[in-house]
Amino acid sequence: THRNALGTIERSGNHLLTLINEILDLAKIESGRMEVALTDFDLIELVSDLSGMFKLRCQQNGLGWRVSGLDAASLPVRGDEGKLRQVLINLLGNAVKFTDSGEVTLRIKRQPDHRFQFEVQDTGPGIRPDMQEKIFEPFTQESEGQKKGGTGLGLAISRRQIELMGGTLTLESQLGVGSRFYFGLNLPPGATPRATEPKRAARKARKLKASCRLRLLVLDDIAENRDMLSLFLRGLGAEVTATETGQDALEELRRHRYDLAFLDIQMPGMTGIEVAQRVLTEHGAACPKLVAISASVLTHEQEHYARVGFHEFIPKPFRFESICECLSRLLGVEFEYDVESTDLDLPEKRADTSEVVLPHELLERLRHAAEMYSVTEFEGYLAEVEVVKPGGSDLAERLRELSRNIQYEDVLATLSQIRSQV
After folding, report:
1. Contact by Cβ (8 Å): 300, 35
2. Do the strands 178-186 and 170-174 form a parallel or antiparallel pair, or are they unpaired?
3. Would you place residue 418 in the very low, low, confident or very high pLDDT band (cuts 50, 70, 90)?
4. Are 219 and 265 in contact (CB under 8 A)?
5. Distances from the Cα of 271 to the Cαs of 223, 229, 253, 293, 420, in angstroms?
6. Is 80 exceeded by the pLDDT of residue 34?
7. d(CA 164, CA 34)
8. CA atoms within 13 A on the CB side of 42
9. Of 362, 342, 10, which is closest to residue 204 (Cα–Cα)?
10. Is the dihedral of CA 179, 183, 189, 192 positive or negative?
11. Are 151 and 210 in contact (CB under 8 A)?
12. 24 with 18: CB under 8 angstroms?
């Protein structure tokens, strides 16, 4: 019950955070504060990442998935990878959300003078002619969009981001046939990205290794932020001192030696930047590592923090994984981890449930409980699944694992593949 409640709180918080970030993105664009960040990246790798993400979503929704246009093994280009990825994720996400049957296609056409055209096409219901321009306006949604949820900001932000990169996001749509969103961008050749190590299964740090001793300082004038970050750090096994004002932090750093200090930027009186400058001046080479913490994630501000002397930046709200990665990078500490992988990470070990046939009424109860995130109710129904022959016990075990990890999208995807009988 507690896990279910916390899962709901986290999902709701993430939804609000997404909405706030979208509004901030729009505000940054309209005020001229959003900048194009040019980097070298592999276009083939970007498309491959998107394909892996949306192929699964399409399969879960019973849709076909197609990628066409690029057949190279690698294609280094120079552009704003982050904005291009965000736009394509938004367009593809909409295509999957609004398409009930048929397929979704991502098409990239290579054109002369290092120009590329990107197209996202679906076989959805189409968009009315009178709405085809309006949907690019902030907070505007067609009736179908209102039913499916969302904020009405995604397309407005996407069009403006494409314009920032020198292109134009255009729509062609026909009712009952589908829609095609497309845009062109100049992406000149870039340096070949350095090879990276294969991604390992996600591991969650549990605590510092017994040989690691850390003394950390937290400065934040907001009690909730101060307590949350301190809680994370103490849970890892670090010794933590929390301070409320810049002057308190300076005095504490004079009295004791700290390995690292987390300094909030926006502070009444002495700001985190002023504290950092004083610490750097007073301690010189013996200065602890300094990490800026702030709810502001504007790129030019983060660059300013680095110029001031901060070694790293962590945005609010705090993410446990980000904190651990920061400590590892700056201090070289090692952690004890939870089990590196489970059956959830290894599809080849999943039980074969292709022969399972559930009573229609039981399958509907399972779906309803999963859609409502009713953990207790859902796991109660699994006792009925376990006695189904053949394969019921394996299916129940698989669903129980997913339920306990609050992976209800995967639960619904699994249930969609199970046959039923009246």
Report:
1. yes
2. antiparallel
3. confident
4. no
5. 16, 18, 16, 11, 62
6. no
7. 9
8. 13
9. 342
10. negative
11. no
12. no
